[in-house]
Write a structure and sequence with these properties.
The strands form four sheets. The protein has a five-stranded mixed sheet. Strands 4-3-5-6-7 form a five-stranded mixed sheet. A five-stranded antiparallel sheet has the order 13-12-11-14-17, with helices on one face. It is an alpha+beta fold. The longest helix is centred in the C-terminal third of the chain and has 13 residues. It has two domains: about 190 residues, D-amino Acid Aminotransferase, Chain A, domain 1 (2-Layer Sandwich), CATH 3.30.470; about 100 residues, Beta Barrel (OB fold (Dihydrolipoamide Acetyltransferase, E2P)), CATH 2.40.50. The protein has five helices and 17 strands.
Length: about 325
Amino acid sequence: MNTPTLPLVAPMLATPGTLPPAAQDARWAYETKQDGQRVMAYLPGDGSVLLRARSGEDITGAYPELRPLGAALGATPAVLDGEVLALDELGRADFQLLQSRMGLAHAPARAARRAARVPVHLVLFDVPYLARPLVRFPYTRRRARLTELGLSGPHWSTPAAVTGHGAEALRATREHGLEGLVCKRLESVYEPGVRSRSWIKIRNMRSEDVIVGGWLPGRGHLTGLPGAVLVGQRAGGRLRYVGGVGTGWSEAERTELAGLLRAAASSRCPFDPAPRVAGAQWVVPRLVGEVSYRTRTRAGMLRQPSWRRLRPDLTAEESAADLPDDFG
């Protein structure tokens, strides 16, 4: 049998945004946004599978448990679009767990050992090629073809999409602690490599109060201003470092914050234990701010934090920013 040569398909990308207007809700499908590694799976129809990352890199070797997917469609050649996830004990995607599996494409022995301890799961959500190119087909037809394939196995599945009811779908992702939602226009074609307005991603962000304990000087046009603030939260009677925040200010807010930080300058690090942050300038921990963030690492550090506002209405002692005593 001659194995067909499959076309190289760059993944279509979503644009950050908000829910479509309510009047257009029925024209959109909604899928859970997954916190994993984007993958294009190439099934030539000879029982093999080739996995490519968003960059085009061959990462097949990093995920040996996905090799059986190559035989799932028999002799039918296909290119499938999906996301590789590592799931926590509650069945939710945990990017920190997945990081232990990434980067092992050229270390098969290590990849096999990690697969036994941290297995991955591939969720499939599009099929831009199935015996012929489907990129010009509307989303609804591609989705129907993908569903008809019945791709469900020990390490892969095809989660359902919801048409309409976007507000309810977004609320459900928040209630279940999921990363967010992807909105896909029903009549949209597949645009390889394009960040398209036909796909809109909405990230669920959390917010909490933090105590500012230090800062890092900015560079270039930020010289003399804070490039980032170093923040913590109370745990077991100590101020524990939870990360650096370097985005979210307007120019005026950054200038105001610079004055407050200079006035609170201290030679002593307020965090216990002291973080290893080169160039840190410490302050008396009396400023309280609110930050938004995606989630926390297993060590309690904030992921993707962004500054929201100062909280002059709260003192560091009154702040509700308390962590469990066993934090870290």
